Amino acid sequence: MARITLSVPNELQVKMEKYKDVINFSKVFQETIAKKIDEKDAFKERIKTGEIDVESIVARLKKQKAEDEERFFDDGVEEGFRWAQIVSYAKLVYAAGKFELNGSWYTDPILGEDLVELVTDQQGEVEMPKSLATCFLRGWLEGVRNFWNEVRHRL
Questions:
Q1: Which span out of 2-11, 33-42, 58-67 was modeled with the highest average pLDDT?
Q2: Are residue 41 and residue 79 in the same domain, yes or no?
Q3: Maximum pairwise Cα distance, the chain
Q4: pLDDT at 126
Q5: Residue 30 shares a structural domain with residue 79
Q6: Which residue of 49, 67, 139, 140 sits 20 to 30 Å from the alpha carbon of 112, by its own alpha carbon?
Protein backbone atom coordinates (compact mmCIF):
# COMPACT_ATOMS: atom_id res chain seq x y z
CA MET A 1 0.00 0.00 0.00
CA ALA A 2 1.32 3.45 -0.91
CA ARG A 3 1.90 6.08 1.75
CA ILE A 4 1.11 9.78 1.44
CA THR A 5 1.50 12.79 3.67
CA LEU A 6 -1.65 14.70 4.51
CA SER A 7 -1.74 18.24 5.90
CA VAL A 8 -4.49 19.37 8.24
CA PRO A 9 -5.03 22.61 10.15
CA ASN A 10 -3.49 22.64 13.61
CA GLU A 11 -6.91 22.85 15.28
CA LEU A 12 -8.06 19.72 13.48
CA GLN A 13 -4.87 17.87 14.37
CA VAL A 14 -5.48 18.65 18.06
CA LYS A 15 -9.01 17.23 17.78
CA MET A 16 -7.78 14.18 15.87
CA GLU A 17 -5.22 13.47 18.56
CA LYS A 18 -8.04 12.98 21.08
CA TYR A 19 -9.61 10.23 18.94
CA LYS A 20 -6.56 8.54 17.40
CA ASP A 21 -7.25 5.34 19.38
CA VAL A 22 -10.93 5.06 18.35
CA ILE A 23 -10.99 6.38 14.80
CA ASN A 24 -8.97 4.84 12.00
CA PHE A 25 -8.20 8.08 10.15
CA SER A 26 -6.45 6.26 7.34
CA LYS A 27 -9.56 4.17 6.67
CA VAL A 28 -11.85 7.22 6.90
CA PHE A 29 -9.65 9.06 4.43
CA GLN A 30 -9.53 6.09 2.02
CA GLU A 31 -13.29 5.60 2.08
CA THR A 32 -13.99 9.31 1.67
CA ILE A 33 -11.57 9.73 -1.23
CA ALA A 34 -12.85 6.56 -2.92
CA LYS A 35 -16.42 7.86 -2.66
CA LYS A 36 -15.46 11.29 -4.08
CA ILE A 37 -13.62 9.67 -7.00
CA ASP A 38 -16.60 7.41 -7.71
CA GLU A 39 -18.91 10.45 -7.71
CA LYS A 40 -16.64 12.32 -10.13
CA ASP A 41 -16.35 9.28 -12.40
CA ALA A 42 -20.13 8.81 -12.40
CA PHE A 43 -20.66 12.47 -13.26
CA LYS A 44 -18.15 12.27 -16.12
CA GLU A 45 -19.90 9.15 -17.40
CA ARG A 46 -23.27 10.92 -17.35
CA ILE A 47 -21.75 13.69 -19.46
CA LYS A 48 -20.06 11.21 -21.81
CA THR A 49 -23.30 9.31 -22.42
CA GLY A 50 -25.23 12.52 -23.06
CA GLU A 51 -27.44 12.16 -19.99
CA ILE A 52 -26.19 15.59 -18.97
CA ASP A 53 -25.84 18.11 -21.80
CA VAL A 54 -23.14 20.34 -20.36
CA GLU A 55 -22.90 22.52 -23.46
CA SER A 56 -26.59 23.43 -23.27
CA ILE A 57 -26.35 24.07 -19.56
CA VAL A 58 -23.28 26.28 -20.00
CA ALA A 59 -24.97 28.19 -22.84
CA ARG A 60 -28.08 28.74 -20.68
CA LEU A 61 -26.00 29.92 -17.71
CA LYS A 62 -23.94 32.27 -19.88
CA LYS A 63 -27.14 33.78 -21.26
CA GLN A 64 -28.57 34.21 -17.76
CA LYS A 65 -25.29 35.71 -16.54
CA ALA A 66 -25.31 38.26 -19.38
CA GLU A 67 -28.95 39.12 -18.66
CA ASP A 68 -28.20 39.52 -14.94
CA GLU A 69 -25.18 41.70 -15.66
CA GLU A 70 -27.24 43.92 -17.95
CA ARG A 71 -30.05 44.16 -15.39
CA PHE A 72 -27.65 45.01 -12.56
CA PHE A 73 -25.89 47.59 -14.75
CA ASP A 74 -29.25 49.19 -15.62
CA ASP A 75 -30.30 49.17 -11.95
CA GLY A 76 -26.97 50.81 -11.13
CA VAL A 77 -27.57 53.56 -13.70
CA GLU A 78 -30.94 54.31 -12.11
CA GLU A 79 -29.49 54.28 -8.60
CA GLY A 80 -26.56 56.49 -9.66
CA PHE A 81 -28.95 58.99 -11.22
CA ARG A 82 -31.09 59.00 -8.04
CA TRP A 83 -28.03 59.31 -5.77
CA ALA A 84 -26.65 62.20 -7.82
CA GLN A 85 -29.85 64.18 -7.24
CA ILE A 86 -29.56 64.11 -3.45
CA VAL A 87 -25.82 64.00 -2.71
CA SER A 88 -23.66 66.98 -1.80
CA TYR A 89 -22.05 69.06 -4.51
CA ALA A 90 -18.55 68.01 -3.43
CA LYS A 91 -19.34 64.29 -3.61
CA LEU A 92 -21.09 64.70 -6.93
CA VAL A 93 -18.14 66.53 -8.50
CA TYR A 94 -15.74 63.95 -7.12
CA ALA A 95 -17.81 60.97 -8.29
CA ALA A 96 -18.40 62.42 -11.73
CA GLY A 97 -14.82 63.50 -12.29
CA LYS A 98 -12.02 62.09 -10.19
CA PHE A 99 -13.45 58.83 -8.88
CA GLU A 100 -12.33 55.64 -10.59
CA LEU A 101 -14.00 52.31 -9.98
CA ASN A 102 -11.10 49.98 -9.23
CA GLY A 103 -10.44 46.98 -7.03
CA SER A 104 -10.34 49.05 -3.85
CA TRP A 105 -13.40 51.25 -4.38
CA TYR A 106 -14.74 50.27 -0.96
CA THR A 107 -11.79 52.02 0.72
CA ASP A 108 -12.24 55.27 -1.16
CA PRO A 109 -12.12 57.99 1.52
CA ILE A 110 -14.95 60.00 -0.02
CA LEU A 111 -17.32 57.45 -1.61
CA GLY A 112 -16.35 54.13 -0.03
CA GLU A 113 -19.05 54.10 2.65
CA ASP A 114 -21.75 55.22 0.20
CA LEU A 115 -20.82 52.48 -2.26
CA VAL A 116 -20.60 49.76 0.36
CA GLU A 117 -24.08 50.75 1.52
CA LEU A 118 -25.37 50.39 -2.05
CA VAL A 119 -24.24 46.77 -2.42
CA THR A 120 -24.92 45.47 1.09
CA ASP A 121 -28.05 44.66 3.00
CA GLN A 122 -29.02 46.00 6.42
CA GLN A 123 -26.81 43.41 8.16
CA GLY A 124 -23.77 44.53 6.16
CA GLU A 125 -23.70 41.39 4.03
CA VAL A 126 -23.03 41.74 0.31
CA GLU A 127 -26.38 41.06 -1.27
CA MET A 128 -25.10 40.26 -4.75
CA PRO A 129 -22.22 38.28 -6.24
CA LYS A 130 -19.04 40.30 -6.70
CA SER A 131 -19.30 40.24 -10.50
CA LEU A 132 -22.85 41.62 -10.35
CA ALA A 133 -21.86 44.21 -7.74
CA THR A 134 -19.20 45.39 -10.17
CA CYS A 135 -21.79 45.64 -12.96
CA PHE A 136 -24.10 47.54 -10.63
CA LEU A 137 -21.36 49.97 -9.61
CA ARG A 138 -20.24 50.54 -13.22
CA GLY A 139 -23.85 51.39 -13.99
CA TRP A 140 -24.06 53.57 -10.89
CA LEU A 141 -21.02 55.55 -12.01
CA GLU A 142 -22.49 55.97 -15.47
CA GLY A 143 -25.75 57.22 -13.95
CA VAL A 144 -23.87 59.72 -11.78
CA ARG A 145 -21.86 60.96 -14.74
CA ASN A 146 -24.94 61.18 -16.96
CA PHE A 147 -26.65 63.33 -14.35
CA TRP A 148 -23.56 65.52 -13.92
CA ASN A 149 -23.29 66.05 -17.67
CA GLU A 150 -26.89 67.27 -17.71
CA VAL A 151 -26.51 69.78 -14.88
CA ARG A 152 -22.89 70.95 -14.76
CA HIS A 153 -23.26 73.62 -17.46
CA ARG A 154 -26.10 75.21 -15.45
CA LEU A 155 -24.02 75.69 -12.30
A1: 58-67
A2: no
A3: 81
A4: 61
A5: no
A6: 67
Report yes or no on 82 lying in a domain.
Answer: yes
Q: What is the pLDDT of residue 13?
A: 92
Q: Does the reported pTM lie above 0.90?
A: no
Q: Does any domain span residue 110?
A: yes
Residue 63 lies in a domain: no
- Give the residue numbers spanning the domain of 100: 68-154
| DSSP output for the chain | ---------HHHHHHHHHHTTT--HHHHHHHHHHHHHHHHHHHHHHHHTTSS-HHHHHHHHHHHHHHHHHHHHHHHHHHHHHHHHHS-HHHHHIIIII----TTGGG-TTTHHHHHHHHB-TTS-B-S-HHHHHHHHHHHHHHHHHHHHHHGGG-
HSE-up of residue 34 (Cα within 13 Å, Cβ side): 6
Residues 150 and 82 occupy one common structural domain: yes
Structural domain count of the chain: 2
